[in-house]
Amino acid sequence: MKRVFWLLIIALCLGGYGVSKHQLDERVKERASELDIRYFLPPEYVRVFAFGYDLAAADIFWIEGVNYFGAELLRPRTNLKYLENYTELILHLDPNFQFFYDWASTAFVYNRLGANRERLVKAIRYANLGIQNMFERRMLNPTLLQKGAFNYGLEAQLYLQSVPYFSYLGRSSREHRDMLLIASTYALYGNRPDWAARLREEYLAYASFEAPSLEEYRNAIYLLTSPQFNARANQFIRQLRVQMERDRELRETVERRLQENPVLADHSSPVESASPSEQRLERILQVDIERNWLPPKLHLLLNL
Q: Distance between CA 162 and CA 154 in Å, rounded?
């Protein structure tokens, strides 16, 4: 009996020691993660030390920054306090690093901390710097333009500020004409039905020139006259924003955030007023392209 008693005492002591050690180890790990201290030189000094090897140094900091951001996404207590240090170093070392702007305009917004004013300002700043850099090099980065616009429209809910981004991209090439419709949707959310009508009218004008068949042209008219226009636009916005991300964790983060977005969850159409532009668009859409001696596309252009 005494042997059993002492065995129980020993087992309880060992169990208590094991539980205490486990809790202590977890606390040490937690404190170690909270006390993650990294030292960064000012970007100007790093650029001097990396003289002649700026691009290589930018690649090194890029890899470290991506690894740091990925680790922060998995941590239960994230702070991302060093993210801006990495982005500023990369920006000074390689201002022509195209994919960097794409990543920075996403990382400050789509993370475990969510989007506040400070992080939104940083994300929009990097997107605008990238757009300006590409423009100076006579290049167009559609993804960066879209991310800059979505940061305004989806996160900051400054709808009218996103319209110039989408309209510029929609006018840039035939492959991106549907961006004019997204711009029109955001113009409506910004209480500018006249601007929205002009953008849809512009989309229809492009369709009259570029539609390879009359059937595709009819589809464009049907899309603009559909009562589900804004619901379809919101669905397209959600799919487009998710598909823009290549990293799986980032894509999942974006998808979760979009599910909570009040604008995308509301499938009702924004209130439109009968502005002159809207009335003109309605008259154009009522044109019967079948009952006219002119070619259908020319008939529509004359009505524009």
A: 9
**pLDDT, position 278:** 58
Q: Which ranges of the chain have pLDDT less than 70?
A: 1-36, 263, 265-304
Q: Residue 54: inside a domain, yes or no?
A: no
The Cα-based distances of 6 to 1, 71, 227, 247 in angstroms read 9, 47, 80, 57
Decide if 149 is inside a domain.
Answer: yes
Residue 131 counted as domain residue: no
Instruction: Count CB-CB contacts under 10 A for residue 87.
Output: 24
Task: Tell me how far apart the alpha carbons of residues 91 and 85 are, in angstroms, rounded to a whole number.
Answer: 10
Structural domain range at position 253: 140-304
| pTM metric for this prediction | 0.73
Phi, psi (5° rounding) for residue 111? -155, -175
Structure tokens at 39: 């030292």
Q: What is the pLDDT of residue 294?
A: 47
Q: What is the pLDDT of residue 164?
A: 93
- State residue 128's pLDDT score: 92
Chain length of the chain: 304
- Domains identified in the chain, total number: 1
Residue 3, in any domain of the structure: no
Q: Which position has the token pair 């419709």? A: 181
Q: Check if the beta carbon of residue 104 is closer than 8 Å to that of residue 87.
A: yes
Contact 275, 187 (CB under 8 A): no
Paired tokens of 65: 């920054």
CA distance 244 to 235: 14
